[in-house]
Amino acid sequence: MEIGKMVVYPMHGAGTIVEVEKEDFYGKEMIYCTLNIVSKEMVLKFPLATADKLKIRDIATTEEILGAMEGEMDREYLTTSNWNKRYQATLDKMKIGTPEEMAQVIVNLKFHDLEKGLSSGERQLYHQAMDILTSEIMLIEDIDYDSAYQKLETKLEEVTSCETPSE
Fold first, then answer.
1. Is 23 left (phi over 0), alpha (psi -120 to 50) or beta?
2. In angstroms, rounded to a whole number, what is the distance separating the alpha carbons of residues 9 and 109?
3. Three-state DSSP class for 148?
4. How open is the CA angle 134-138-143, to the nearest 5 degrees?
5. 130 half-sphere exposure, CB direction, 13 A CA radius
6. What would the DSSP string read from start to end of 69-102?
7. Based on the number of CB atoms within 10 Å of its own CB, is 55 exposed (0-12), middle (13-18) or buried (19 or more)?
């Protein structure tokens, strides 16, 4: 990874690598990357050697993100009455962090909210997933948070108005 590269750190959001440096870690020299998250005043530092394990990935395109929202819904998720199982399934998808998984999270949660409402934990995950995808669109298109969020909201409204979860 090089300075200026745009990546997504699952569960935190998209950002730009601002520094790559060697540091001593208990007598072992390791390369660390410093990531400036675009949508938050947050700077993260991670060992380059663990980037794959952390599921850090290159940013996608807006078309990939919005297109993923049109993918198949997780029917089992939508019919599970146990909020704890839904919460854990959602968290697992978010940790994977691909545009497809993140899009499925927000679509599933939106449908569930429209049908039955969300638990407070699920609502928090919904907003976190929206923020992560919003930060990615901010970087892709070089736009502000509100404009990027609006793109996601518009697509989400389109997707949820065209289908019903029981179809």
1. beta
2. 21
3. helix
4. 130
5. 23
6. TTS---HHHHH---HHHHHHHHHHHHHH--HHHH
7. middle
Residue owning tokens 């389109």 = 158
Question: What's this model's pTM, rounded to 2 decimal places?
Answer: 0.86
Task: Give the single-character DSSP code of 56.
Answer: -
Q: Please, what CATH class does the domain formed by 62-162 belong to? A: mainly alpha
Nearest to 11 by CA among 113, 98, 110, 114: 98
CA atoms within 13 A on the CB side of 52: 1
Quick: pLDDT tens for 112-133. 888 888 888 889 999 999 999 9
Residue 8 near residue 95, CB atoms below 8 Å: no
Taking domain 6-58, whether its CATH number is 2.40.10.170 is answered by yes
| Placement of tokens 């790559």 in the chain | 20
The torsion angles phi and psi of 20, rounded to 5 degrees, stand at: -130, 120
Hey, where are the domains in the chain? Answer: 6-58, 62-162
Span of 72-76, 131-135, 163-167 with lowest mean pLDDT: 163-167
Query: Computed from CA positions of residues 140, 59, 35, 31, in that sequence, does the dihedral angle turn out positive or negative?
Result: negative
